[in-house]
Structure formats: C-alpha cells, structure tokens
Amino acid sequence: MTNALLAISDEQLATNVLFYALAAGVALSALAVVLSRNIVRTALFLLFTLGGVAGVYFMLNAEFLAAVQLVVYAGGTLILIVFAVMLTSKSPFIRFDPKAIEVVVAAIAGAIMLVALLAGIISTHGPVGTPGAIVRQPLDWGTSQYPVADLGQALLGDYLLPFELASVLLLVVMIGAAFLAKGRRRRAAGEEKA
Amino acid sequence: MTLTLATICIPPVGLYHYLALAAFVFVCGLLTILLKRNAIGILMGVELILNAANINLAAFNRYAHGGLPGRPALDGQIFALFVIVLAAAEAAIALAIFLNFYNNIASIDVERGKELRG
Predict the structure, then answer these.
(1) I need a labelling partner for A1 at 20 to 30 A (CA). Which of A166, B44, B67, B117 fits?
(2) ipTM of this complex
C-alpha cells in the first residue's frame, strides 16, 4: 500500500508536474488579484486566473467546461469587466488604498478561513477504503473518456428544466442590463429637452 | 514504473490537491471582496469565489461522484456550467448597476454608496 502510493508511473509524474505548474499559476495570479492596487492590472491577473482554471478543468477531463470557461469567462465576462473599468475610471490608473485596520482585519479573516478549509480537507484525508478517505484515483470512465456527448444528453434530459430556465434568465438579464445601463441617461436627456 | 527522487517526494495528485487549490482561490476572492473599494474589484472577487466553487464541483465529479465506467454521471460539470451562466448574468447586471452608480455620483468607490438615497 505504501509502496503503491510512493511509486508512480511516468504518466502520473507528468500529471503531477502539469498540475503543480497550473496550480502555481492559478494561485499566484489569484494572489496578485488581491494584492494589485491598480484595477486594470487586477483585471489582467483575473484573466490569468480564469485561464489557469480552464487548464485545471482540462486536467479533470472536463474539456467542454474548459472551453466554456475560456469562451464565456475569459472571452465574455472579462471583456465586460474591462469595458466597465474603462467607462468608470476617470484615469485608468485610479487607486483606492484600503485603511491599515481593514488590511489587518481582512488578513486575519482570510488566514482563519484558509486554515479552517485546509484543516477540513486534511482531516478527511484518511487511508483508502475508510469512510473518511478522500479519493486519490480518478474514477474510471471507461471508453467515454471525453464525455461531451453525455454532457449534452444530460443537459437536454435530466437538466432540461434548469437549462430552459437559464435561457429565460439570460433573456431577462439582457433586457434588464440594457435598461439599467441606458435608462437613466435617456431620462436625463429627456429632462433636458423638457 | 520509475522510482526517482521526484516521484517519492511528490505524492500523486488526488482530489485533495484540487480542494486545496480551490480553498486558496476562495480565500483570495474573499480577501479581494474585503480589501477592494472599487466596486468592479469586488465583482472580480466574487468571480474568483465562483471559480473556486467550480473547481470543487469538477474535481468531485472526477474523483468522488462520477457514475460508472462507460456511463459517467456529469452532474458536477453541469452544476459548474450553470454557475458560469449565472456568473455571466450576474456580472452583466452588476456592471449595469455600477455604470448607473457612476453616472449618479461620478465615482466607483463603494464607500460613496452611503450617499445613495432612494
């Protein structure tokens, strides 16, 4: 058992190297999002984080999820955020520094949260086979190693109602966002005419 | 099967590695929300937290609850997809509100939010 855990194949080693490289990239850029005081740089580091998370999805055999992450998050949401940054800052290098007391309180809260989460994860990490064991081996998905077809069937089968609700929600959000972003200015223009 | 120093020092990547990564990203998102005074920065923190949750969902789907060989159950990935859709919707609405906020008080600093009345 111990030997089986220590001795790993070349493929496993490659997985390890890839995972640690991706995890380091994601963790460092997430940290940079916290520490960066410049909102444009924060957005750039968020882009790196989102791209790294897409790589993590690839490692978890969630190819479709990774593609959606790149297209919707890195391609769509982040562009939206960057546009909002450009529209709302008088100077793109505007900075709001938090007070020292806020930094201390936030650091303590973050440290407590991180320690609690990691302690929870480690405490569930027992020997394989015990009820509290956390799994070391990925599940065997057999021939459907890239299960996009299964994903599509589940979306239009078991998850048809949430899927349709999400499409209605997106329509509502689209109309609502256009109204919120434009309504005020149009009313102001109308008042000027009157 | 190779037994080099690196293979002994580094245990095989398992579920708990992904959970630890997600925990770290979650805490980064939390700190971003607590420390940024720019409303858009706070939104970025929310996106980080949602991404941490998504890593957990995809990792549990791959390691702990994923169906049988040849017939994978992809509930975790589908939840993550819905989270991405909702995050995009939330970002669109939030940014529209921030634009309105900026049009009203000419600042994106959330501290100025207390000036909003009705």
Answers:
(1) B67
(2) 0.87
